Amino acid sequence: TAILSMAKTKPSSKDQRNRDKRKSRKDLDRVLPDRSTHRTTLKESADQLAAKATTLLQTSQADEALPVALKALKRLEKEDDALGLNALPVLNLLAEINLELGDADEARKYFFEASQLDPGGSISESLGGGVEKFLWLAQLSDEGGRASVAWFEKAITILRNDITSTFDSAVKAEKSRKLAAALCSVIEIYMTDLSWEPDAESRCESLITEAILIAPESAETLQTLAN
What we know:
The chain has twelve helices and no strands.
């Protein structure tokens, strides 16, 4: 009986291995970084999320792109405490996604936020700046009339500056086409919503003259001239 009792108290090789494993885990916990911190480093960055959302949008998956882009924006807000210039691409992306989904109000909201970060359109287009947001705000304005003209005029000023400051003929041609289209859009407003303005006719004449000078072969210019 004594022999049997001693046998029960003797640790088995399996028990010893378990104790060794527990000891090893404790030792690792002392030298490895906190696991929650390690998981954070594995999260996708805002840029990665934005790239994923862009790909989804380009492959006609706007409904799936929206939550990914929103997550990218929240990641930026969390990292910077407030949205800075680095948020411009994501704001524009969210606006484009909402346009694709048919939500003009949400699109206008994000374009407006982008315009507040780049009020002069001086930030490079490659960084999410430039004129596009102002052109969209003019078209999406729920007030129309003077409000739309104000946004178009801001875009027109930016495009004029871009045209005079570039030596790239292809860029100059593209900017000129956009400028002509913006000028013609203002003409259309003065011919409809603001036709009662005393200077509507003279404004239209001035605008179409400039459009003809900068983009005489533009479809928008020719159509407006015909009207």
